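Below is a filled-in request sheet from our internal design queue. Each sheet records the structural input a requester submitted and the sequence that came back. We keep these sheets so that new team members can see what a complete request looks like end to end.

REQUESTER: design group, bay 2
PRIORITY: normal
MODE: inverse folding
CHAIN LENGTH: 113
BACKBONE (tokenized):
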């Protein structure tokens, strides 16, 4: 007999996977707005900022890893939960990294030379 926690686990796993995709799609949709601002700068953008610009693979590496883990651990749900939690935490950490990366050129312009 399944306990309530084991019956709920597939829904939680799917929710974490959808959250991961949602965060990355949202950040990918914000990046073009910052790219318009960056085009007016005469200097080269820092590596961290270029990494988050549209067309970068950073938006799809973590979600692809999460889908691969979801499929690989389908029959071992006790392992799947820890991997998907790592994906969810990674997605949450992407938000402040994105903010820092997008505002880094602005901080560099205001720095004394």
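RETURNED SEQUENCE:
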């Amino acid at each position: 007999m399944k306990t309530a926690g084991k019956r709920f686990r597939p829904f939680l796993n799917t929710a974490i996977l959808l959250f991961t995709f949602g965060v990355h799609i949202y950040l990918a949709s914000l990046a073009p707005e910052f790219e318009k601002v960056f085009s007016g700068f005469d200097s080269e953008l820092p590596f961290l900022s270029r990494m988050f610009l549209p067309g970068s693979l950073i938006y799809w590496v973590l979600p692809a890893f999460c889908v691969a883990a979801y499929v690989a651990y389908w029959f071992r749900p006790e392992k799947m939960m820890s991997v998907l939690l790592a994906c969810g935490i990674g997605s949450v950490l992407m938000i402040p990294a994105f903010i820092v990366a997008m505002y880094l050129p602005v901080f560099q312009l205001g720095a004394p030379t």
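SHEET NOTES:
- The mean pLDDT is 79.
- The chain has one domain: 4-110.
FILED BY: M.R.
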